[in-house]
Amino acid sequence: MIPLPPTAPPGVATSESLASDLGCFPTPETYVALVRAFKDDGFELCADLCGVDYLEHPGRDLPDGVVPTRFEVVVNLLSLSKRQRVRVRVQAGDDEPRVPSLFDLYPGTEAMEREAFDLFGILFDGHPDLTRILMPEEWEGHPLRKDYAVGRVPVQFKEAPGPR
Amino acid sequence: MSDLHVRSAERPDLLTVETSEGAQGLQARDVTATLELGRELGAVLRANGLTLDPRDVDVERRDDETMIINMGPAHPSTHGVLRLMLELDGEFVLRTKPVIGYLHTGMEKTGEVLTYVQGGTNVTRMDYLSPVANELSYSMAVEKLLGVEVPERAVWIRMLMAELNRVSSHLVWMATNGMDLGATSMMIYGFRERELILAFFEKTAGLRLNLNYVRPGGVAADLPDGWEDDVAVICDTIFERSFEYDQLLTGQPIFRQRMEGVAPITAEEALALGVTGPLLRSTGVPWDLRRTMPYLAYDQVDFDVIVGTYGDNFDRYAIRLNEIRESIRIVRQCLEKMPLGDYRSQDPKVTPPPRARIGESMEALIHHFKLFTEGFAVPTGEVYSAIESPRGELGCYLVSDGGPKPYRLHVRAPSFVNLQAVPLLMRGGSVSDAITVISTVDPIMGEVDR
């Protein structure tokens, strides 16, 4: 298991996840400081950032002291020099999920944060251009939320049921 | 209603409303926030913190000197439905903003209502030029959660198919890139050679494009009889012809002038933007997941990671051309070393019973039926698996709640992330360079929008 970087903020819970890379659980307050510590420690690339809506799966496995919330932001960092991955999972909140943006550290998270905003409605403070990216501008709702129904399109055949 | 019939020249505001994408689109400079302006100029890498002065990030341009035009979504050189908004000063591009989502079909949402068995048919349609890579990344994520061991032969079959797929994907790239630059003969040659590989896919998996061949636990079917001969012919033909493409394009002065030194990117910029794949390697960073974080049996085959020096269009072309040859090298080693054995795991949890048993055993029939209607339950957990697709790091983040369907299926699409380099690469170039930039970044819109 990889230790946390020396400059990491205190009190960050960790766990070893299934993929045998380090999982860290900062709060929204310590989130940017932790990612910055990883960046200074040689994690040059932010590989992935996505949101998860845990509305229907609240009892997930979290280390002690981490309060689960409905929305979670998952960041996968990659170190080219150490050939390691690390996963940062931050609990973003229930009703109005909000976390700070990583744009200043990794400009490449720009599109990924826009995607998480578009599909989950997670707000990223400090993002330069938080607009919808995949859905049309005037779309209502955030499609990947669990309380957003899977749509159905009527099929043009006689007595044919819709998909699903 | 009568407003609609007013001629647009008399009511310019109506014209804007009709064509505007709202805040998603590229706005005039005086209504754009400084930070966003900086991002669109590709200046984020030079900005320190949040204090960014517009005078630092651009030359003294005013809105009445520049023009914002649309390119796409139905432009032939945008490889699908990519829409770019370009701010032009005469012939030169200042700001660029990709507007995406025209091919968004909600595949991540669809993935949540399909079982793990059905999921392969969904993910294979994301990056439609390299379906095997998509299925591989997804299947490896599912297998990691399940803890299922894949038999040796399945691993090598997967590697063989993934590398053949890389060759076919790069051949399409060579073809379309040639077409964008006016080298239409390359277009015909690229598609001609790709046909060989697609014919082999059809023989093996039954389908040419969206194979659904790699499945959790192994692959769908064993290689067909006589596959060695087919693969040997493919390798010999394409390897030999790759030198013909070399001769056709590399030595051609017009091609070189449009590629060499055009749209360079540095390693720092590429890393900051999260860019991977040939785009990152063109800057000299030897980062190829097949070598640096080996999966399947890539640590048992011999191949070179191709890197560039200048990070320009020509490097990206040369890398893809040479990766075709390296992939063929790997395929030839698969041919030699292909082990005997099962092509899928014998774990009854993920694998249906053999066809012969279904006819005579009630239990086997029930088992088969349950597997394809209910699917199999996957232990609770989260997993991220990444592979090197022809376009870069293709990751799959899977969350399971213990049921037969993924709770959340997220695909880290390399094209989606690489597309962010486009504004930076295009800045300062001409519109004709913009065409080559789109081409060498190689975005696959099915994967960008998912």
CATH class of the largest domain in chain B: Mainly Alpha
Q: Are there runs of chain A of 5+ residues with pLDDT below 50, and where?
A: none
Q: Which fold name is given in CATH as the topology of the largest domain in chain B?
A: Cytochrome-c3 Hydrogenase, chain B
For the termini of chain B, the CA-CA separation is: 37 Å
Structural class of chain A: alpha/beta
Report low-confidence residues of chain B grouped into runs of 5 or more.
1-9, 11-19, 47-52
Mean pLDDT figure of chain A: 82
- Second CATH tier, the architecture of the domain at 13-125 in chain A: 2-Layer Sandwich
* Oligomeric state of shown chains: heterodimer
Tally of helical runs of chain A: 2
Largest interface comes to:
A-B, 50 and 55 residues
Task: Outline the biggest β-sheet of chain A.
Answer: 5 strands, mixed
Helix content of chain A: 10-25%
Question: Helix segment count of chain B?
Answer: 20
CATH architecture title of the largest domain in chain B: Orthogonal Bundle
Strand order of the largest sheet of chain A: 1-2-5-4-3
What is the overall pLDDT average of chain B? 84
How much of the residues of chain B is beta strand, in percent?
5-15%
Alpha-carbon distance between the termini of chain A? 43 Å
The CATH first-level class of the domain at 13-125 in chain A comes to Alpha Beta
State the CATH superfamily name of the domain at 13-125 in chain A: NADH:ubiquinone oxidoreductase Nqo5 subunit
